[in-house]
Design a protein that fits this description.
Chain lengths: 378, 378
């Protein structure tokens, strides 16, 4: 049986990237290493759609979120948290650890925070120093309207900090054009890499605030990364083999073109949702994003057992819901190094296990709806 | 020309470990992933020579140092810093960032802090909460007498925190028997891996202090790692491909046996020092350790140019001195996945470039001294 990774991180890694990782390790302070970091940093600017430098941190996405919070906020400063699930709650955890004064704008799992809710919160809290939110809420499949958020926050003194960990590179996200001040992502999602690197960029507005904020830590002190990157270097020993491999995946992204890449994800996500509905299932997210499709487990079906059967019988590894959502949803990623034919296979496998579980379903309902939606979209 | 890595981190990685890194990425919350982390954690206890759990952080060594400082010290608490070079200064940077009250016990580059100096500092500062020091000071080649340090600190309320990043696994270090309270290391030195993981363990005495200290960050909050590891898990997305590869290198270390591994490094280091002296050069460290040999550049020789020639003509990549030491020393690592025959090759190449630079040297002086010292030691 062939194992197939459909979890919303880690995601499949291109073969040429994996082979980079098997090459002998080299010194991280050589001219060659600096040239590689410079190249990766340039390609990241393209992926982020920003003219600001993008910094490479050796850590996972949460480390990048900690960098955003700890550099932008002093103790006790007010932060508006727009949270729609577990990854919004991750921001809350980091904000709490750094003693922020949190004003939470919360919606139930499956819903999205609206621009109007954010606008109201900002008006009620003119002293808020930053807004923290999520591009793709991977726990529910919801996407936030960051273009609208950006327009609202740009008119205030607050910064807009975005967890783009599972969305960036999979759905439209324009850091500069949308006025996003701090954007964080990780290597292991749409950037087609194993986990181990996080990336962050900061707008001029963000840097102004960072430079006026007391230093709160060392490893995530962005001033150090800014200074080092001027010489195409890192302040601390970087995961240099990961950076070299990231270069290979970024080349693939550049070759496809970021807008084509967004369009590919949009098209696959649309076809997946059509399949879900044709199978008599429901998409869980009210405002679904293109990085993953989250499916509500239908009544009478044991969600966790279905996923186990999918993996055991057919090799398809989807993700269960997290915490209280366990058994309630199925999370199917179509991020990064995957295509419509592979997702079609996952739909086929899901059909099979559902039928085997006694769920009423016409064989082929899902795959034909997928095919039809895919063929008639661009 | 065959490239050969002799820098004191990164170091050569075994082929079977590199091949692990080229395997398809898998989900980090699976039963298989937990079993791997459990196995790695057990093998790390063996390497650390501790019965306490060892935590795996996705970051480089400095992140592990930040975890030690931020978990063990509250704002303004007193710390004794025993520093003998650049990596002692790294502790100072982290301590400053976390607002410690630093009492520095400093020696010039090339010297070691003595147990007597530490004892005096502790007597003068009975309110010190912790002592921070370095096992192998990679910037100078000095090793500290941690067994003696441990005996002294154990009689006080202070913790002993050790940067074992480039020493652990290359030289004797017994966490429990020597009363080391916080020990940090990184994957890319004697543990035969690329950079990207740090490891830390804490004694019961350290945990008592950590549990009484306010939380100061999130990503490096050791309480979270302690809780997760009870279920063989990590609190945040780990570098799971690195962890899997680390397993392969740890198996190699277990197969060799930690005491044999220490003995191998001691023997190679002794032979290297014999070669250095026979070539008319000087070992820079007053109290040299076995992880690397640091050689003082002789008068009339351009240290940096020699290293460039070594790499360009013969493929041997040694490290230059850092900061003010640039051009003053050569740093030759014999850590991890390397053996006497490879180090002999490096001595041969160094002889050749020195002769080509006009340095008076009988060809074979270094290699024959190396061979003699190696053959007559165990």
């Amino acid at each position: 049986m062939k194992p197939r990774l459909f979890t919303p991180g880690p995601t499949p890694v291109p073969e040429e990237t994996l082979l980079e990782l098997a090459k002998p390790v080299t010194y991280h302070r050589s001219a060659e290493a600096k040239a590689i970091l410079a190249e990766v940093s340039e390609d990241l600017k393209y992926v982020f759609q920003t003219s600001q430098p993008v910094y490479t941190l050796t850590c996972s996405g949460t480390g990048g979120m900690e960098a955003a919070v700890s550099n932008a906020l002093a103790v006790g400063e007010k932060a508006i948290l727009c949270t729609a699930g577990r990854w919004g709650e991750r921001w809350r955890g980091v904000l709490k650890a750094f003693s922020a004064d949190i004003v939470a704008v919360e919606v139930p799992y499956g819903k999205a925070v609206t621009p109007e809710m954010l606008e109201t919160a900002l008006k009620a809290n003119p002293d808020a120093k930053a807004v923290f939110t999520t591009l793709s809420e991977t726990s529910t499949g919801v996407g936030h309207d960051l273009e609208a958020f950006g327009k609202i926050v740009a008119g205030t003194d607050a910064l807009l900090a975005v967890d783009g960990i599972s969305g960036l590179g999979a759905m439209e996200c324009r850091t500069d054009a949308w006025n996003l001040d701090l954007v964080v992502t990780g290597s292991q999602k749409a950037l087609m890499m194993p986990p181990g690197l996080a990336f962050i960029c900061a707008s001029a507005k963000a840097w102004k605030k960072i430079d006026a904020t007391p230093v709160r830590n060392f490893y995530f002190d962005l001033r150090r990364y800014r200074k080092s990157l001027l010489e195409s270097d890192t302040p601390f020993t970087p995961g240099n083999t990961l950076i070299k491999a990231q270069r290979a995946s970024l080349k693939r992204i550049r070759a496809e073109g970021i807008e084509n890449l967004w369009a590919r994800h949009t098209r696959i996500a649309g076809a997946t949702r059509a399949a879900v509905e044709a199978m008599g299932l429901k998409v869980f997210a009210e405002r679904p994003n293109s990085a993953l499709t989250v499916i509500a487990v239908p009544a009478g079906i044991d969600g966790s057992s279905t996923l186990k059967a999918l993996e055991k019988k057919y090799g398809y590894k989807l993700a269960d819901g997290q915490d209280a959502m366990k058994g309630q949803i199925w999370r199917l990623s179509h991020m990064g190094y995957t295509d419509a034919f592979e997702v079609l296979g996952a739909v086929s496998a899901l059909e099979l296990v559902l039928i085997e579980s006694g769920f009423k379903l016409e064989p082929g309902a899902g795959v034909s709806a997928f095919q039809k939606a895919y063929a008639t979209s661009k």
